[in-house]
Specification:
With 242 residues, the chain is an alpha/beta fold. It is built from ten helices and eight strands. The two termini are 17 Å apart. The model has no long low-confidence stretch (mean pLDDT 97).
Length: 242
């Protein structure tokens, strides 16, 4: 399996960013790490190995990016306004630096956003916000309401709310999408969501699924037995849904 390490100074984040590339051809897949995760976690947890055949056969090429969650959503000492602004800088890094980089590596026109846990949020949110950029999103064990308390998952903005928070919270903004052109773009997305039947985030997943259906946005939603919010489950999920 071809494996490459890349690092450069991000102009949008004003810091060095790292990523790993697995494979040589096929659909480009940007893989977001879990909460405060790193670009090497997906490999370290054996999830990349679960897709070895697809990668070596040239069906998929993975671009495992790093996170800045510790500087954005989980920067407890930052004012909530600065948390969401840092997240928006991260989004610009992905769109304006990582996406062009993937095209330089591989001219395949198909681009997928993928992640697990908070990485699932990153994947679904960026694809819903920019459906003209992405063709597909695959989210496992995701949290899609980032400004409410859900079980042990706290409100990431401590009660603060503004337009930027709203437009990065799928559980809020998706209800109010009405522009016909934008809806048509969303309806062209292939969306796959998976959550465990005992996962505290299951109801949030069901709510997003219901909203997608109300908007006429086709998608696939699967429920796995157990909590299914661990790497051992994700290693199996990729075999079915990637």
């Amino acid at each position: 399996m071809k494996r490459e390490y890349h690092q450069w100074h991000s102009s949008h984040l004003n810091r060095s960013m790292e990523l790993l590339v697995f494979g040589h051809a096929g659909a480009r897949v940007i893989v977001f790490p879990t909460r405060v995760g790193r670009f090497f976690d997906y490999e370290g947890w054996g999830i990349v190995e679960s897709m070895r055949e697809q990668i070596e056969n040239g069906h998929l090429q993975l671009f495992c990016v790093d996170s800045v969650d510790a500087e954005s959503f989980y920067c407890d000492w930052c004012h909530p306004k600065n948390r969401i602004l840092r997240h928006l800088q991260y989004e610009r890094y992905i769109l304006n630096e990582v996406v062009p980089f993937t095209k330089q590596q591989n001219e395949n026109p198909h681009l997928t956003a993928h992640g697990c846990s908070l990485g699932a949020y990153h994947a679904l949110n960026i694809a819903l916000r920019h459906p003209s950029v992405f063709n597909k999103v695959i989210s496992f064990s995701g949290r899609y309401d980032i400004s409410s308390n859900i079980g042990s998952y706290r409100d990431l903005f401590d009660g603060y709310h503004d337009e930027d928070v709203y437009f990065n919270n799928p559980s809020q903004y998706l209800h109010n999408v009405s522009d016909p052109t934008f809806l048509e773009q969303l309806r062209r997305l292939e969306i796959i969501m998976v959550a465990g039947e005992e996962d505290v985030l299951l109801e949030n997943n069901k709510s997003i699924s219901a909203t997608l259906s109300e908007k006429g946005i086709s998608h696939q939603f699967y429920v796995w037995s157990g909590d299914a919010h661990r790497a051992r489950y994700w290693r199996e999920m990729v075999k079915h849904y990637m």
